[in-house]
Predict the structure.
Amino acid sequence: MTTLRPEAIAAIAATMGSGVSRRRVLQAAGLGGAAMLAAACGTGGDASGDATGPASASSAPDQSDTDKVVNWSNWPLYIDINDETGERPTLEAFQKDTGIAVTYTEDVNDNNEFYAKVRTQLEQGQDIGRDIVVLTDWMAALWIQNGFAQKLDKAAMPNSGNIIPRLASVSFDPNREFTLPWQSGIGGLGYNKATLKEALAVDKMTTLDQLFDPALKGRITVLSEMRDTMGCIMAWQGNDPANFTDDQFNEGIAALTEQVDSGQIRQVTGNDYIAALESGDVIAVIGWSGDIFALGEDFGFEVPESGGTLWTDNMLVPALAAHKKNAEMVMNYYYDPEVAAQVAAYVNYICPVEGAQAAMEKIDPALASNEFIFPTAATLDRTKVFMELTPEQNEKYERAFQSAIGN
């Protein structure tokens, strides 16, 4: 599979109601060679300024005071939407309250695809025409390393202090100087409750031993997102997805290859595992928490006993963005707990904002108690953020993963 084209995304989105995550629609089933290399080859760059370590981004004169606009690129189906009118309630409220016009574009269909689209401009020190972009951890790390992200003015963003402790510091941005989380999710075990009961006589799937039980041969799938599938497998083997060696990664690749070659794994897939779960053709998956939650009560999701993965999609301001101050006002607004709760009620992923759970009680008490929107510390402690990779490691590991799954 390849990344869905925008017109295909629009057609799928038109058939879906609220609570459908962007990853359900969009996650690519495999990296195209050119796109993979585009992500792998960035190594620092002349646009980085004179900093050592993470490069310091160039900046342009901020036009925010005279030009009341923000250009925001995000993933489709990743903000609250009024299904009847198509309007985005929180965004409409922000614009009304501030007088800042937000051009909100759903054009981040895949991390690699988006990077390939704007990389030349970034490397040449040009404004890419966006003031906010939303990128997954590892791609945000690449932008920071290459000097493609500007430092945020936290003094202008008092609500940024509402970030939940678990996400307040990450390896690629320890003090959150460049990024703020937009939404997070967990990679773990999803399953069709009825067919799992028939096959294994259990009510829950909690281990990868169950996933790889011969009784499920040909009726399981794993994700084409290398970090989630390999993170779960390495944790199952007793290794740490947040800190591993080449030998430990290769041990995981060997296990994956065995399961693919034996026919245990029906398919290595992106978004289309959902349809197979719904039909009963697939009993269980390594999948994403928000996707499974959106399917309803007939389906279950568990963090494996050995551990799952935690990923985050992050807001950042690109180098040379023309409206940084306005962008920071948007970020600050979405870190208001009341606003964050409205978004979480629609997208059903982990809300990164402290206080949003209390605010959710007024919107939907059932969602306020949902472990995969507002997980407890105990649940988060069972997850790992995949180790930050160098460009060389990324290329090497992606190639090994693609080979293991037969691409």
